[in-house]
Model the fold of this input.
Amino acid sequence: MAFSLGSLRLPWRRSGNEGDPYWDAFINRPPADVLNSIPEIIRRAPQGNVFPTPSELHSPNVMSSHVKELASYLHGKLTGIVDLGKQDPELAQGYPFGIVCAVKAEYDPYTSPGVGGQAALQDGQYVVFILASWIREMGFRATIKVETSREQRERLAVAAGLGTLTSAGRLTVPKYGTKIHIADIIFTDLPMLADG
Done:
């Protein structure tokens, strides 16, 4: 409920963050020290060991469902499984499946290097770090491929059925359009049913 006190209207609403130098720096200015960037800290975290005795699993389609439910619980907006046997063997490096997770991105982390602009990158790393750790605890290999390019990630997202590529080569998905960030890909031998 809004009411006014002379020229002051409550609740006070800003039209946006245009022209705010602090907001612009928060989104666009890269940190002076990369150790102030949470994504850099997560990226340097060591991977755990694979549990020596693999867990008994349900069918591959049930495992795919469990992976997607866990990613959703961790706030991954979209998750798909890609069959790496149909991809470039150099990219797959002997892994049969890739898990592609996407998070909502108000600002593109590739063009917004500030702490605020990197929020989607941080959210994506959080999801894939925990998913990969869970898979290793079940006794299966799970490697987070940081060195995959944006183009490779978006092509794998299309192969996993998450969306389509625009004429400019950017991934677009039905609910979020291009305001989406594909996190680092998890390459795994966990038996699953591929999408797409």
